[in-house]
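Please produce the structure of this protein holding adenosine-5'-triphosphate.
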Amino acid sequence: MENYFRKDRSKILLTDANIIATNIANYMDDKNKFDYEIEKKSEEGGYRIIVFDTMGTVINDSNKSDIGKIYIIPEVIDTLKKKDHTVLRKKERRFYSCASILNQKSEKIGAVLIVSSAEEIFSVLDEIRKKLFLITIFTCAIIFVLAFFIANLIMEPLKKILAVLEKISAGQLDQRIEIKNKNEFAQLASSFNKMTNKLAQIENTREEFVSNVSHELKTPLSAIKVLTESMLNEKDIPLDIYREFLSDINSEIDRMTNIVNDLLTLVKLDKKRFPLNISDTNLNNMLENIIKRLTPLADKKNIELEFTCNKNIILQADEMKLSLAISNLIDNGIKYTPSGGKVKINIDSDENFAYITVQDNGIGINESEQEKIFERFYRIDKTRDRETGGTGLGLSITNSTIIMHNGNIKLTSDEGLGTTFVITIPLKCAKQNM
Ligand code: ATP
Ligand code: MG
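Below is the modeled complex.
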């Protein structure tokens, strides 16, 4: 702004100086006219006018004070030597505008200097400066207040999340964040809530698992306890009763061993540290071996095992684990099919997948139970299964194994008609998931 004012004023003053210089060039010899012209112009313009000859001597001055003095100031010297120009002397707060006087032959015969106060401009500038300062302070204050509110607005939901996080870390897994609107924080809160749900679910499963394990182990233990106590308390028990009791104890111990072994298998499957031992596996051979192993069991219950395959299937798998997983399915087929029934096993494949189907015409599984049977320790009819000796871990082992092989297991079942399990496993196991 200062620049603008300076240039604008300089231009006006230089024009004035030029006009005066042209006017007085004609009547510099006529003193009265000369003085009158200078006074008049000085009054009109509100500035002091000084006229010099070529030597820098003052020949006229609207203030009358300096006539006859020699001025050696840069503005005058420059104008006489070079060209007209205006300068703002900031310290004095004055403009010095100087134009040369030319005669008819265009020779320099002197110079006109206008000395004009720049006070007006500076006071305007000072005023603007003051106002700008106030505006700046005011704006800063507004920005500060706004920033404070916005920061609070952002921090508020974060604080809530933090508070809930603290409680969760302290073990209160039932904590959830209230979601009111639909912004990013709401999304964060919703993901957070999902995570806490998952945590709570894991915690639940863990508690359930521990209580199931304890329960499962407690039953055979109390049976053993009862048997030994009765042996200790009774005197003179016949040897065959002893034998019977001991054989009962022995079978309870077997049962516990089975549970512990199954649990160990599950833990191993859960831990990613125990990678699958993948190798090219002949599925046909594997099933033939399984069936050979299970045939005595099936024969005992008078159940027919039927194995069909129409091609040779080689897939990449952990032979031991997959074999156990399929055995569990066939074992279930035998266990949950009444005497005289049939368990059909079929293997097939396409370009990418191998399919293993185990179908029985046994008791079937109610639709509401179908999801649950893969859970650990889940058995549909607890009393019945105590007789069959199952731990309820077989299908969880099978399911975990198939998932580790990047496959899936599906079942269809009708109560009273039978059950069909279909395992789908990629022929080439994606090892990065192991
Ligand atoms: P385990 O296999 O550990 O000895 P289990 O056979 O009882 O014990 P799972 O194999 O996990 O346990 O099966 C869970 C439950 O699902 C079984 O108790 C049974 O009630 C039901 N089930 C499994 N397979 C069949 C089937 N083919 N027909 C009917 N019910 C079945
Ligand atoms: Mg089973």
